[in-house]
């Protein structure tokens, strides 16, 4: 009689686990239902089974199939202009979050309360960083690491690094010149290689020459991010994913550790003033400045006696470098593409920038690199260029932030109601904030003059409404570096080179090479949508928000008038 007993046991087990599952779902949705009945703003269409998951469908249908989900959320946000805040319950895909797009509410969350980063953020960053890192840490641990790395990213240190950036951008420029009169190429690929090379140099003092050759670290990171998704279940539940990511993570660690150890030995030699035959480096990398801060903070001389870098410190520093590589390349590379996109779309602004560069650097474009290396602060004279870049960042912001709720905390919506954050965190949606018509007049127009006019002008923005790097204690540590990279790239290329997108030719080529399956699909479902609010170069979800199809383009010499 053994078998029937097993069946009974299995049956009981199944029922209890099913019951347990139902209880978890019920417990979650009940909390949301309470908020719903309290009148917390949220989309009407909510169900006990799927929450708000089906709400997005209508909005996703209104954008190209591969466009970033953030744009569907932005369109949904328009229905909540009266509160500038609404709850979406995508659980269990995501924790329940308020989508917030009003500067006052965001300032409460990020500046006033500085709510902690969410546990999901840490989970998603883990395969990329290997462990706890600046983006996902909280509390004292975050404070300690941020203070170690702040000196390396400070304005002065970044100005010292300008010559390195100039050198890399000169290679980028040469590569562009090589493409003149030749076929289509991906600008996103060029800018990604450029920003990777720069971040390796600035953070680790490692000359990777990645714009001209391959690099094991960059390749490993590429593998990790191609197996990365914030939400796509096909990627997330793939059984091989953890193994592949860990394998490539170890390759990254080996590379970074080798460089870290070299910098430690250099710093030690310099500290013990044993500069046998070596002069101290005049330009210090981020990691060298972090090592100096670490050694000063340890105070005791023991560290200097140690042969190798402390294991724990080295592990954590490696996680941070991995996160810099990720956060610093993707975002900046895609921003750079949109800078060229905007230069092509707004020839009147291109001319204004050319005139400004002639004034600041003299009429000969080839002199600018030398002048910049000698006097990096010339960048600060390029006021129109900065305004142009700010407007580009406003309309194409590639990041955002997610914060966890906290017991007892409420956030005030635009109508003045206090919304409870005990159970619900916040998703700060820059894509919606930056075109919020209450705070941005003529929100969809490209008007860099917003950032130049006097405060009494109607166009003058509320400083709290422009947050591409977020604001408050958890703002982006790399923002000075970004402004420098973008300004130098524009100064060294926009006077005599002109990039224009090649989507027409790209689409024609794709249509030509279309297989029978794709043809059938189009015959049944119609042509796929190809523009977002009229723009073919819309942003897609990859690790950061990248221009669709890598921004196919052509380059030619520009007429300078
Ligand atoms: C256009 C380029 C960039 C944009 C738009 C951007 C945007 C942002 C945003 C919005 C945050 C806040 C994220 C959050 O709260 O979850 C952030 C944080 C951060 N970013 Fe950037 N970023 C850019 C480039 C860089 C670069 C070049 C680095 C280089 C190291 C970097 C490193 C970081 C780090 C470490 C944090 C976490 C800071 C902390 O919490 O202490 N980012 N960034
Ligand atoms: C950059 O780092 C890698 C890994 O340590 C090393 O093999 C390579 O030689 C470094 N490049 C230079 C120019 O030092």
Outline the structure in words.
The chain is globular and about 80 Å long. The chain has 561 residues and is α+β, with helices and mostly antiparallel strands. The strands form 4 sheets. A 4-stranded mixed sheet has the order 1-2-7-4. It folds into 2 domains: 1-38; 39-557, Cytochrome P450 (Cytochrome p450, Orthogonal Bundle). The protein contains 22 helices and 11 strands. The protein starts with a helix and ends with a strand. Bound molecules: protoporphyrin IX containing FE (HEM) and 2-acetamido-2-deoxy-beta-D-glucopyranose. 2-acetamido-2-deoxy-beta-D-glucopyranose (NAG) binds at residues 206-208, 255, 258-259.
Short description:
The chain has 561 residues and is of the alpha+beta class. The protein has helices spanning 2-37, 56-60, 69-77, 103-112, 119-129, 139-153, 155-160, 162-179, 187-204, 216-226, 233-236, 241-271, 286-298, 302-305, 311-345, 347-361, 368-374, 383-396, 430-433, 479-493, 503-512, 516-525; strands at 85-88, 97-100, 185-186, 401-403, 410-412, 418-420, 425-428, 497-501, 539-541, 545-547, 552-557.
């Amino acid at each position: 009689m053994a078998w029937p007993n097993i069946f009974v046991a299995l049956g009981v087990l199944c029922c209890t686990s099913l019951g347990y599952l139902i209880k978890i779902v019920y417990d979650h949705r009940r909390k949301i239902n309470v908020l719903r009945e309290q009148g917390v703003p949220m989309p009407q269409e909510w169900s006990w089974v799927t929450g708000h998951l089906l709400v997005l469908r209508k909005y996703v249908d209104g954008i190209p199939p591969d466009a970033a989900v953030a744009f569907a959320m932005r369109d949904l946000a328009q229905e909540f202009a009266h509160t500038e805040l609404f709850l979406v319950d995508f659980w269990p895909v995501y924790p329940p979050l308020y989508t917030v797009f009003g500067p006052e509410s965001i300032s409460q969350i990020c500046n006033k309360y500085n709510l902690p980063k969410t546990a999901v953020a840490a989970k998603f960053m883990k395969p990329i960083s290997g462990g706890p890192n600046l983006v996902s840490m909280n509390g004292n641990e975050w404070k300690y690491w941020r203070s170690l790395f702040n000196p390396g990213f400070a304005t002065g240190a970044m100005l010292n690094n300008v010559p390195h950036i100039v050198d890399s951008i000169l290679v980028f420029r040469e590569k562009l010149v090589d493409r003149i009169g030749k076929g289509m190429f991906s600008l996103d690929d060029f800018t990604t290689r450029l920003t990777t090379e720069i971040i390796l140099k600035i953070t680790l003092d490692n000359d990777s020459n990645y714009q001209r050759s391959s690099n094991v670290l960059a390749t490993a990171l590429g593998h990790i991010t191609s197996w990365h998704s914030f939400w796509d279940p096909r990627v997330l539940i793939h059984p091989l994913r953890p193994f592949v990511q860990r394998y490539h993570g170890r390759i990254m660690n080996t590379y970074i550790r080798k460089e870290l150890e070299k910098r430690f030995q250099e710093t030690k030699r310099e500290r013990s003033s044993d500069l046998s035959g070596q002069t101290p480096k005049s330009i210090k990398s981020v990691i060298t400045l972090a090592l100096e801060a670490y050694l000063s903070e340890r105070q005791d001389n023991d560290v200097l006696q140690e042969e190798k870098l402390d294991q724990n410190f080295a592990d954590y520093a490696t996680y941070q470098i991995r996160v810099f590589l990720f956060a610093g390349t993707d975002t900046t590379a895609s921003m750079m593409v949109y800078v060229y996109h905007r230069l092509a779309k707004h020839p009147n602004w291109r001319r204004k920038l050319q005139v400004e560069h002639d004034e600041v650097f003299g009429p000969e474009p080839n002199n600018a690199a030398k002048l910049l290396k000698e006097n990096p602060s010339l960048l600060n004279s390029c006021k129109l260029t900065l305004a142009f870049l700010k407007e580009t960042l406003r309309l194409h912001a590639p990041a955002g932030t997610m914060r966890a709720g906290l017991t007892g905390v409420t956030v005030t919506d635009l109508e003045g109601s206090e919304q409870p954050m005990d159970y619900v965190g916040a998703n700060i949606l820059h894509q919606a904030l930056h075109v919020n018509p209450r705070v941005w007049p003529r929100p969809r127009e490209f008007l860099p003059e917003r950032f130049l006019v006097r405060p009494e002008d109607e166009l003058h923005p509320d400083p709290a409404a422009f947050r591409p790097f977020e604001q408050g204690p958890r703002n982006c540590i790399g923002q000075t570096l970004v402004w420098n990279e973008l300004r130098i790239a524009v100064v060294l290329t926009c006077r005599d080179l002109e990039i224009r997108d090649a989507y027409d030719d790209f689409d024609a080529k794709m249509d030509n090479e279309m297989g029978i399956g794709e043809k059938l699909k189009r015959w049944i479902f119609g042509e796929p949508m190809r523009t977002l609010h009229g723009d073919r170069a819309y942003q897609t979800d990859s690790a950061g928000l990248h221009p669709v199809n890598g921004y196919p383009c052509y380059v030619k010499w520009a007429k300078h008038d």
